[in-house]
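Listing S7. Sequence submitted for prediction.
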Amino acid sequence: MKIEARTAELNAAVAVAENLCAAARTAPKGCGIDHIETLILTGAEKDALADEMIRLTKEEGFPAIFERDARCLKKALAVVLIGSTRTGARGLNCTICGYDGCAACLQAGSACAFEMIDLGIALGSAVGLAADRRVDTRIMYTVGRTALKTGLLSRAEVAMGVPVSISGKSPFFDRG
């Protein structure tokens, strides 16, 4: 059997993307409560997300960074979307959120700090695994914001995108 490099690289990117989802899922969560949602896009679906990022820049006045990141996303083989699905309180009354307790946080319509902490740990776990696999990634809020706007993550309230690239030079640097 003969497997061309591009096919092998795409297969590797998807396999790593799947492992990134697993790393995000198994990352430690505050109180053991898991509100993480993940999704992988490749091919036409990935490129459609990049096209939407460009449209948002040109037609809805989103910052130019969205178009810049869209160009990077188009060069990637896959993208992993990682989001947090709830902003409810954990009941710890820890006041890390800046309120006098969970009831005050919820009354203000704010988010439990642990949701963002858990999302950050999940992202770190995922991109750490990608680095161990020698695959280029970058955490991009622009990709996550666009995914939320288009409804790709149906339950998430905040999300980040992690494009996955296998190439001679990472497309996520020297982005200009």
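Caption to Listing S7: primary sequence and predicted structure tokens for the chain studied. The first strand starts at residue 36 and ends at 42. The mean pLDDT is 94.
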